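Title: Prediction job returns without error message
Component: structure pipeline
Severity: low
Priority: P3
Assignee: unassigned

Description:
Job completed but the reporter wants confirmation the result is attached to the right record. Sequence as submitted:
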Amino acid sequence: LEVKMSNEWDVIIIGAGSAGIPTAIFAANRGAKVLQIEVSNKIGGTLMLSSGQISAAGTKRQKNMGIDDSPLEHYEDAQRIAEDTIDPILGKLAIDNAAQTYDWLESIGYEPIKNHPVAGGAHEPYLKRRYHWAENAAIAILDVLKPIHEKLVKEKKISLHLNTRMTEILMDNSGSVKGVKSESLNGQKEFYGKNIVITSGGYAHNKKLWDELNPNIPLRAWTNEYSLGDGLIAARKIGADYDGADKFLCTFAGVLED
């Protein structure tokens, strides 16, 4: 019993990328006992590869530049660009919280390119200027998140396990999630938690899973080698459904000749 009690966590976070890092920071700062599992030997996930473009409406930066904007206008504009294919619940959840998220990033030191926000860049433009990104792409996001995360790890407010892969979601007899099973160089281990948050990202480095979920879209990806769909695979094993594969849209495309 004592061994299990010491291995009981308020929050277990699977992944330490663009979603997992802030999840761990906010949970730890609110006093939660946090365990974070990351399959790579470093945190950051796809931030090392991403352009880091962030669109948000109603930001402090917009207001300071005299740009009058709102989440509703942002949502309607996004649906216009996407030809009404955005899931309204997920779309509004992201867009309604985008300004607060962006303002928080600026408050911890994130600096976009000087004249930003802009209406567009590499994507179809918005009707208003709400696109931000930095000279150093998404690395700039990691650069402001990492020191805060490292401090919390050092203070033992986040227990970070690198080179550790989540292999299974554990259930109790009532059918509730009780923890996860993991695999590392030290062997297999089980962790128990009140809340399990899956932030393990995509599956574009798992060709077998890609071909199963997106059979009509040939895979030509430049991706994080750990984008293996571990969270999706484990969740499906316990009966979770998945959605959105039909909405896949490639940012840039070409014609395969050879």
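Comment from assignee: result matches the submitted record. The mean pLDDT is 92.
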